Amino acid sequence: MDENLASDLAELPALLDAVRESATEVLTGIETRPVARTPKEVGPEELPEHGIGLRRALALFRERWEPAFSGSAGPRYFGFVTGGATPASVAGDWLTAALDQNAMSGEDSSATELEHQTVGWVGRLFGLDQHTGAFVSGATMSNFVGLAIAREWLGEQLGISVADAGVGALGPVPVLSGTPHSSISKSLSMLGIGRDSVRLVPTLPGREAVDVDRLAEALDALDGRPAIVVANAGTVNTVDFDDLRAIAALRQRYPFWLHVDGAFGAFAALAPEYAALVAGLGEADSVCVDLHKWLNVPYDAAVQFSRRQDLQVRVFLNAAAYLTAPTGTPDFGHLVPENSRRLRALTAWFSLTAYGRDGHRDIVQRNISGANRLAGQLTETGLLRLVAPVRLNVVCFTLADRATPERVDALAAAVADSGETFVTPTVYDGVPALRAAFSNWRTTDADVNRAAKAINAAALALS
């Protein structure tokens, strides 16, 4: 055995303690760590020929790389929709690595049984009791799987199997949506359907939600041709929601597969005062939910749900003499793109077991409250204005005066350089803007106050 490996094995308990101490220092010091850092080149390193062992590697990482990492695990990181990691999910992630299960097949352990149970739990959070599902890496892959099943469904309507005959047998595929996330186009590209297949349907005035009447017109114009409809349960910029029940009702008149992108907006179901926003989610044919957002488990973890597991198996069948055939409950290797797959479900199992529905409802409600608090503090000075109402957990705002791309970019840079908070740029209705997305379990009113102070100070410096 290599001498470094042998030494690390002999010293393993002490080394794991050293890693624990390092992680503890990061997480307990997150309040004082700069939230974001302007990326600077660290410089190249030569590939080690002999290695230095874990203890020295840990010291080198902490000296050379860790200081340049963001505080994205902390309570004032509002970029993208980045959840933190609850204590229980951190424990689950560490044990996931330690146990190192390949959750493809149920032939050698109960790991896949735990995943099935956890998928069921997640489904019940969102009223998806009639769906089956599996863990995937993130929202993009969740949307990819849902749309892959939709593609197979389109073939079924024409009496062919796309999985066997290829996407060319389908001909052009109409994909209708109001405000699709960029991962939808990316998934359609990977599936061979093509980005150009997306037909944007007009949205309601001043909204990102699709106009259902115009959607019906678009479907009617297809003259009975089957289509894919992509609906939103929470858009990126303003967390707007399509009327899922009204869209689902259109299937009485038109043939289409309904895929709902509920990456983080589906979590509205946990808050009774917002649950109506996702009414009808259970009627979807496939659903995307991203758990490293509002469930606050570490990257990467998402779940895809579908009503047609039979079609899913047809798409992702992994046939080999040494693998179990997909009878009864199919192995996950027959349900998702990956054959080799880590037990992503364990982080969610730990967090749901530790905190339950009530604990995660608390996170959602506090984050929504925090978003409204930030919106109030940003607009009271008159230097900033909202470009859309706060509908859930995202504050979309811009400069009240001369909101040019250059000035908004300068504002974003100044906010990041403050080290107090981090927000990301966007464009909404043609207006350059910034997004503050709340999804971290640790965020308090005090964090909101600090973030608002930093953003307002940066806006004042630009005025």
Please provide a written account of the structure:
Pfam families: Pyridoxal_deC. This is Aspartate aminotransferase family protein. Keywords: Aminotransferase, Decarboxylase, Lyase, Pyridoxal phosphate, Transferase. This protein is of the alpha/beta class and 463 residues long. The protein has three domains: 3-71; 101-341, Type I PLP-dependent aspartate aminotransferase-like (Major domain) (Aspartate Aminotransferase, domain 2), CATH 3.40.640.10; 352-462, Aspartate Aminotransferase, domain 1, CATH 3.90.1150. Helices cover 41% and strands 12% of the residues. It contains 15 helices and eleven strands. The protein has helices at residues 3-10, 12-28, 54-64, 87-99, 111-125, 139-158, 162-165, 182-190, 212-220, 244-249, 291-294, 309-316, 345-379, 405-418, 445-462, and strands at 132-136, 175-177, 198-200, 227-232, 256-261, 286-290, 302-306, 384-386, 394-399, 424-428, 431-437. The strands form two sheets. A seven-stranded mixed β-sheet has the order 1-7-6-5-4-2-3, with helices on both faces. Strands 8-9-11-10 form a four-stranded antiparallel β-sheet. A hairpin with a 2-residue loop joins strand 10 and strand 11. The mean pLDDT is 96.
